[in-house]
Amino acid sequence: MAQTSKEILYIGTYSQNDSKGIYVLEFDRSSLSATVLQTVHDKKNPTFLALHPSGKFLYAAYREGQHAEDPNGTIAAYAIEAGTGRLSLVNWVSSAGASPCHISLDPSGNVVFVSHYQGGNLATFKVLDSGGVSEAVSFVQHKGSSIHPNQTKPHMHAMIPSLDGKWVYASDLGIDQLVKYNVNIRKGSVGDNPKVFHVKAGSGPRHFVIHPVLPYAYSVEELSNTVGIYAVDPKDGDLTFLSRVEMLSPALHSDYNAAADIHLSVDGTWLYASNRGQDNLAIYRVDQNTGLLELQGHIPTGGQHPRNFKVDEKGDLLLVANMESDNVVIFTIPEDTGIPEPTGKSISIPRAVFIEQLFID
Predict the structure, then answer these.
(1) Which domains does the chain possess?
(2) pLDDT tens-digit readout, 216-226
(3) What family does the entry list (predicted)?
């Protein structure tokens, strides 16, 4: 794991426990340590971040609005300084909904997708020539409810674009739906005729990941602590449910459990999903013929409430943001087993929620 270029980590946080907002860290791969280069706290609770495909801009979803009475959040665009990774504000706009909890970009870097948990809606934004963001181009309000006590109304949680950018998949925890929207790259909008895929009642789809090579996708389900497995039609992007696997370890007991994040290994051989309560990662091997999952075991995340985690783009490391214990814990990923191993190294970050990674040559 020799250092081949400068590595920058951007950490999103809740503005609690003296957190200073977005943390910009220079990461040393050889010592598995990090130095704080900058903190940015333009608004409260920059919990989720998204890196532009060019590596020149970073987008942040702040839960605080434009003014004190504003019920919506704020989307901020930052220019990344070449050579250092430091951030400078380009512009910000209203997120157009309450409590933005996820932000992502299409593969071309022309469209920003934002999910609002409390508002139960989604919005899209056009990326401007400056790298800034337009006002909201699309706004879609979801409707409905489901059977769980936490499902009295829609709770949008993530928008994940297809690998070719033609579609984006919206996970709505509150109404147990995965919704496929057509994406208009030029306009920065989503279409008016979405395709709805109903999920098992009470499961609560939260985050979604698409296999980099195989025609399969995986949905982590927060309320049932399960992973849903789907075949993806390469022609129209439609989803076909295949199976569902458990996330919890039968050897552990916790009164509270809530599945959180999901990612594949770089080569698509392994799938990881985090659980808050048991505070572990469930490790699965991906069948390269069927897309189905075989549980390999569980590993403790080295902290409490693993809200999100990052699989290193080089495939060597896995970093877990443990929100309640204020740390980012570093694991190595052995090539032969794919089961992350603790390094004993961690980075202290108050209320750490999300990790983004940038390599600077």
Answers:
(1) 42-202 (2.130.10.10)
(2) 999 999 999 99
(3) Belongs to the cycloisomerase 2 family.
